[in-house]
Amino acid sequence: MKISEASRASGVSARSLRHYEDEGLIVPGRFSNGFRDYCRSTIDRVLVIRSLLESGLPVRLIREVLPGLTDGTADGPKAVCAEFLHEVQDYRDRLAAHIAALSDQQAALDTYLREARRTGP
């Protein structure tokens, strides 16, 4: 399928598809006229990439682990290296700390607003 069809099928913009190709995350085929040709397995791979990116993982890590997630072997995610899992855990821990800090800020603002409304002008 052409890039416009692949974009519709995956929910990812044509620009993002080109970016994934530039980053070495996907390798679409080519028609004789040079246009990109996306097969179903490439669309499936794009969906995995999009999910990982939405999780906040950097392209560098996705590029490293993607073959083990999408190559169709029985190992799949089990083949993910320990270093990758460590980096994902570190990212998750930083995210949890950030969420905790934001929750503390929200609680402080809630307290301020309660006090401000109670004492009012």
Verbal overview:
- The protein is mostly helical and 121 residues long.
- It has five helices and two strands; from the N terminus they run ααββααα.
- Helix 3 (40-54) packs across helix 4.
- The N and C termini lie far apart (65 Å).
- Residues 1-68 form the HTH merR-type domain.
- This is MerR family transcriptional regulator.
- InterPro entries: DNA-bd_dom_put_sf, MerR-type_HTH_dom, MerR_fam.
Uncertain stretches of 5 or more adjacent residues: none
Please tell me the overall pLDDT: 88
Task: Give the SSE string.
Answer: HHEEHHH
- Alpha-carbon Rg, integer: 21 Å
What's the short story on this structure?
This protein has helices at residues 3-10, 14-22, 40-54, 59-70, 82-119, and strands spanning 29-30, 36-37. It contains five helices and two strands; from the N terminus they run H-H-E-E-H-H-H. The chain has a domain at 1-58: Multidrug-efflux Transporter Regulator, Chain: A, Domain 2 (Orthogonal Bundle), CATH 1.10.1660.10.
Task: Show the helix and strand layout.
Elements: H1 3-10, H2 14-22, E1 29-30, E2 36-37, H3 40-54, H4 59-70, H5 82-119
Antiparallel strand pairs: 1-2
Helix pairs in contact: 3-4
Which features characterize this protein?
mainly alpha; elongated; 68% helix; 121 residues; repressor; transcription; DNA-binding; 5 helices; two-stranded antiparallel ribbon; Multidrug-efflux Transporter Regulator, Chain: A, Domain 2
